[in-house]
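ENTRY TYPE: protein
WANTED: fold as tokens:
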Amino acid sequence: MKPNTLLIAGATGIVGHAAIEHFSALPDWNVVTLSRRAPPAREGVRHLSADLTDAAACQQAVALAPDITHVLYAALYEKPQLLAGWTDPEQIEVNRSMLRHLLDALALHAPGLRHVALLQGTKAYGSHVGRVPVPAKERWPRLPHPIFYWQQEDLLRERQRHADWSFTILRPQIVLGYAQASPMNVIAAIGAYAAIQQERGLPLSFPGGGRYVNACSDSRLIARAVEWAGQHPNAANETFNVVNGDVLVWQDIWPSIATHLGMPVGEDAPLELARDMPRHEDVWSRIVQRHGLQPTTLAGLVGSSWQFADRNLAYGQATPDDRIVSPIKLRQAGFADCIDTEDAVLYWLDRMRKARLLPPGPA
């Protein structure tokens, strides 16, 4: 019998998908997924269907997996207007109640629970409301800006004080990975934008704004950090930034992306993807038919990620602020894994190609 059972809440998202792949390949782990939609079937992975906004459904689902020892909470409720939703009181309360429903169910039905990993992000440092000093550090005092992270974190800390389990809060930056209709998947947005440009006979022009230094978090790295945090005493009740270890300027890796996709690089051509790309469903339909892709609409593939891509490619910003977080605390605690970001971007574009979500590359 395997000694560890991980429950992944939010299994159809970018981090959930990577965690399924990572933990299902480990010999000492069982994997249970929890989400409204089932992720792609995988041998040895159990799925529990439940809407986290429904307290009774959470109770019924978690009762079917009393062997849970670890939890990765990667579930998220976002508004259609992505950026505006980040400070919306209703969105904040829904995200808090989703976590509360799961913690209530675990308290009743998971007596062997040992660890909960909770995802936050760089909005903890106020990146969604203003300039953040560089590099952002976990030890800084909490800023009084609206974000659901604080309500979730306070709830988690309150429950942990009366329990035998510990928690770890992980703060990735731009998460790179594989998912459909994710609200924050820059890979899907770049890949679909490139495919549409290519179909229209256009080069791969950079659609964003000014240059700035940024960082990313590969979802495979996050999954490995979750494994480490769930078993290492240095991670108990701590908060860590989780980034690849390098930095990037999007304009500087753009030629590499174009070459990888078999496209010429065009002159920079600022374009609001969230406004322009949804107009090209007909172009996307032709791409799907020509290449035998999965029968997915453009909206079904990219979701709200056009808005996320506009923000992170700095559309409309002549001199965007650098966004860099410090990885030092995590390294000093004992997790020193890293991934080359340029390689990661190309890897995940290829993964979406192999899944027939993006057209194949050059022969």
